[in-house]
Every structure is written in structure tokens, then in C-alpha cells.
Amino acid sequence: MRRPRLLLRLNFLAAFALAVGGALTVGAVHRPQTQAPVQFPDTAAAKQFAAWLAAFNSGDRDTILHFFEKNMPDRVSHIDDTLDFRKQTGGFDFKQTVDSAATRFTGLVQEKASGRMARFEIEVEATEPHRILTLDLELVNQEAGPPPARVSESEAISALKAELEKQTAADAFSGAVLVSKNGKPIFSGAYGLADRAKKTPNTLDTKFRLGSMNKMFTATAVLQLVEAGKIQLDAPLGKYVVDYPNKEVAAKVTIHQLLTHTGGTGDFFGPEFDAHRMELHTLQDYVTLLGNRAPRFEPGSKFEYSNFGFILLGVVIERVSGQSYYEYVEEHVFKPAGMTATNSLPEDQAVGNRSVGYMKPEGGGDWTPNTNTLPYRGTSAGGGYSTVGDLLRFAAALTGHKLLNEHFTELLTTGKVATGPVAKYAYGFEDRTVDGVRSYGHGGGAPGMNGDLRIYPQSGYVIAVLANLDPPAATRISQFIGNRLPANR
After folding, report:
1. Entry pTM
2. Helix, strand, coil abundance in the chain, percent, nearest 5
3. Is residue 12 assigned to a domain?
4. Residue 481 gets which letter from DSSP?
5. Nearest 10 degrees: Cα torsion 363, 365, 369, 371
6. What is the span of the domain harbouring residue 97?
């Protein structure tokens, strides 16, 4: 699952365990060279962004809270997440205007802590007080400085080895990496410790928690049932979950919208989840807790990452197949792909070779186990575990049409809803093209876990990285090698 730390509808998420997973967009945008202060345009949107930036950069709880109360009231409850995000980034410097209109403003900011660049877009109401409707931040280069040049395969792998040694020595990476070309591994390695107390090293067989990467398995399962004629993409949720509590969601939100995060079904993280974290044993338990909520916006009108939407897809799988979600994906996704080390067993069950996740506590300090943040078990939205080898097997089964036929594989992985200038969200996969190089996959991140799977259809490369540290431990490595490998076969 992509557990948010700052909920501003950010695509910056995967870099800081907001996504994730998810869905991190990376583009080739060079940092501006000018050192002179950049002026904001004289528009309502630009003024609101400048005000948000000043409040955020202050790092002061009362200042940020006051701004939220006046301009983004639905974010007041996420003040602690925002402060956490501020600590991680060190704030941002405004660098460049990209596009400016009265109610919409787009530009570039630079993260103070790392020098990385992010593209932002803000939209405000047309009338006073011009409250903020959406605010997106999208990482455009994981590495500080200009995007790297693509090099030969051997040079890229040599650079990857050096980077992994550097990041491991700095205690910024702990995990496993596998890179393949046309189905054959060309690099593999494990680094750091799976259990720091026991000094157990990570290996290629170590199981790491996936975060939102489970969404790929869920979406694949849904498309299998679509292919079998048991689910219709344009049908409403209520056709399959006839007793769903909120009638508006049941009648309006379609399977397509749930798969593309456009249904307005929101998240499940928050005070209610925290209060009932260990009581949520089944997908139906989540529906019982949160199913009365109305849509956050008119279904289909915009993209907003929704973990709860993928919980609902899991419930649909259960109702249509007659199996539990866990039984279905094990039988129809994991077994056909040869994935013997992937599952979502509850945290109170012993799982051999499963790593301990380590997170940095608020305010800094030593790595701490993330045990008290974990749900009872992984769900159709995320939180299971796997190995880098199993992720490569999943990629091979998918591209080899062992899970879906060619038509439905293409439907599953082809982007449908724009989430940034180089990325679209498909069905449980993010589809992005950077400098003419297309890849699809999904990331995952939460405290003490980070992972990324990228499939490059033009070149035949597949990159799988899993880490038992906070994001962007794995994402950074995945993008490092992905930015350097040759673009074509």
C-alpha cells in the first residue's frame, strides 16, 4: 500500500512513501541554471502556491495548520503527515514557471535536502478566497543534477554495482536487486541486513513487504475475470457487491474507475484505520468500517490515488469468483507464474526469510522496526510480501501471456488516465514514457518498506528492487539503473 505522509494528491509519493507507490513519474527535466531569485506570476494560482510554499517551508505546525484551515480544509487532519514530509524534504525552492493562467499554475521546485527537481501544478477556485482545489508535486529526476546519459549494458551494470555499494555503505539501501534482459538475469545482488538485531543478511531469497505493488496482482486478477466474461469494466460496483452500504458509490463507481483511481473512493489510512488496525482481518472488515462514505468527487471526473478503491476490487473478486481474494490470486496469479515466495499471510504467522522493515522515527534517530505500523495482513491494495525473483517471474508470466491473453495484457498495462507529463495510470500499473523510453510497472512504499518493478517492452529489460527501509531506498536504485540501460534491444 502507498501510505500517505502528505495528502495533496501528490505524484511525488513514491519517493517518500507517500505512493508508491506507487506511481512515481520521472522525466528528463534539467534543473534551471540561473541563481537569481525567480518571481511568481501575478495570478491567484501563483499567489496561492507561493503562500503554500512559504507555510510549508516554515516547518511550523501552527503556520501550516492555519494555511490548511483557510485554503485546504480537508487536509487539516493530515497536518502530522505534512510535517513529516517537510522534515524529509527540507522544503522546496521555487525555480521556474512552466505555465501560468489565472486559476492554474505549473512550474518547477527543487528539494532542499537532495537537490532533486519536482514539477508542481496547482489549481484554485476562480472566486475569492481562491481555495486550493488540487496541488500536485511530481518528481522529475530522482538524481540531483541533469539526467544521466544512457550507456552500454556493461557500463550501466558497473555503475549500478558502484551505486549499490555507495548507498549500502551510507545505510541508505538494504535489500535485493535483480535485472534481466529477455528473461535472463544480467545482474543480481543482495545488500544489508534482513534483521538487524540478529544480524541476518539479506539474500536473493529474502521476502520483502511490497506496499502497493500488490495492486498489479489485483488488477491482473480482475482482468482475468473480465477476460472470462464474469466482470464488465463499465459495470458499477453495485452489480457485484449488491449490499454495498453507500448507494451512490454502488450505483456510480465503475470497475474501470476503481482500477484507474478515478472513482473518488478515497484512502483507508487515517484515524479510523489507526484505531482498528489489528481488527481488520478481512476485506469485508474494511467495507464495514468505511463503506458508508460518499464519493470524494464525481466518479470519473479526476484521478486521485485510492487504496480503498483496490480494497473494493478485492471484494469484487471474492463475490464473482466465490473464493477469498487470497485464494484467488494464489491459484490464478502466483501458481501459473511460478511465484512460490509471494503471499499475504497475517503478521502473527511465522514467515520464513521475511525481512524486518526499518523506518526512521520522526525527528531522526536510529532505524526502528516498523512493526507497530503494519496492518493485520496485506490486502488487495497492498502490503503482501515477495522476492525479487518472484517479481521477475510475474513479469515473465505477464509478458509471456500466461496470465492473460495478448489483448487483455495490453489493456491491463496501457495507460488510461494522465497522472503527469510523462505518465498515465493503467489498470494497477503505471505506464510512463521518458525520453522516448516506455516502461510499465508499479512501486510500493510505506514506513520501513519500498519496492519497484519496471518492465521495458522496447529493450526487454526488467528491473526488480525491494528494500526493507523507508522510501526512496528501492525507488532510487530502480531509477538509477533504468535511466542508464540502453533504450532498445
Report:
1. 0.81
2. 35, 20, 45
3. no
4. H
5. -20
6. 29-141
